[in-house]
């Protein structure tokens, strides 16, 4: 018969066996069982505390405190470093006085050891920093992303597009056995889309790699994701994947400058695509991970990696750089500077080409735990980060904060789509953005999503740009964008529709229609931004909609109820914008038709972009054109309507498309009227014979109509004054065969 003592001996023996091979998860419950059964052995308490201390979950780590305190109080054989570790646990638990007490004890017991003394002094300084920051909390409210995103496992490094439509993050998940490695856990990238203020259930981004992958950064438009890939013999490097609709490309090398034989962890790219900030522990740094930058040169190559130096980098680790779209504010993570415990988030500002002394973001963004991977939306009103602070669901979780109203950043964000007017489908496009104030130099090349046609551009205030647009199947065209000198964040939604103009199956021009949805005044813009901000609070569940609605109904506040319903339904997606000018008075609408016969090479504008000269159609000044078209007077009435009765009929020989000289007189008579009345045009109608194949006859009919059109064209009548009509086979069965080989020309009034 096994006695209680024998049973406990076996439990402890099993615990020791698991502990010796560092299987702390299986050792812990056995040690706890022995303690519950009455053992008072300080060594058992000590090892139980160590097992808890090794947990990735801070909530479990701080459960080690009573075990370690019992061990230290009841034995002199416990390692002295335990006082320091106990201080760390008290700091994470925000029991800062007890943390300092244990650091002091450790310091007193290690007096001959200079390294230990320095470690204790640094820890005490960190704890006192925590007291300072927590005594004056900042005006931030921290929200967990909740169970749609956070789990009992690890979620970290959230990267978010500038318009908050896409969120990607790194997740540590149990290895199912079908994955890249034999590890117990693997890292993978998950992505979620913002659907009317609610984040969708995250989906795995399938990245081809034999090793762990993670988020490193994302471009402001959400089209390029910078990712980390670790290797068997390589600490880890940075690569890029590109989005097309909901799919992502295979990883490609961004630039050899970025990677080294050492570790590269995270990166952030500016909206103009010219500068990448990244973290690396390569040789020549100040110590640990440092933040570097590389800049795109005029020859299209990336320049050498430049260490940001002091005051940003220290002998500690600086990681997770995030350059805000304003390009002057850099956020990063560090366990140096004036940290209040673990890793903290810091902010530095570029002033006169020098970075300011980093500012700790303060409590409650930073805590005594690890807080890192900070990313701020373009408008400055919401930020995302990850943390293993108390109260989380697992190890690291993802959080967001709503910034104070005063945090609005004066940038303009243009969200648009380029579509085919006839099919409403996206057109493969490149957008070259040229700063008109810097000698017409290329500022950036944008590649709208090939699956959706969507693009996102972020511009600073008080600037004037030309958008040179190359859309497949159309001549390059240029839109002028004038950014106001605003002091607030400004959103502009844009829809561009393109249409080819054909005359008898020949493309003779193109129409560009631009619709801008924005607010004309500062106050209107602020009101709309506030409404969008409030909508996100409502849709995310931050405020209790049910209680609000009951209160409004009780007070019979119809206006308030309508406003609340609007907030619930509000969506800032370009797809949800009302681009119907009949019902949206705030639209700026302008269209321009370009006929190629009026656009010879001398009238094209030469744009030097990407080292090549692009001939663009004349610049479309959208704002001016919209005002002019809106204020344009009604069409001038034709005084002599009888002129519209004039016409000509041209007959052709079978199989021929050349005009006989006998018809010149009747055609020239129409030409006289066209020169007299600029508001008149000609309507050319081509007919086909019923004989032979339908396709052949249609083609011959078009050739004949084109011959007549070119007759007028060569006489100075431009194609915009021509209305082309292909009427097909003559329907009159008794008509002479010649009737099927004719082209009719008549005078018509042109549309405005």
From TrEMBL:
Cellular compartments per GO CC: cell outer membrane
CDD domains in the record: OmpA_C-like
Pfam family, one: OmpA
Residue windows of the TPR repeats: 80-113
Keyword Membrane among UniProt keywords: yes
Key words of the record: Cell outer membrane, Membrane, TPR repeat
The OmpA-like domain, residue ranges: 639-752
Name under which the protein is recorded: OmpA/MotB domain protein
Organism: Chryseotalea sanaruensis
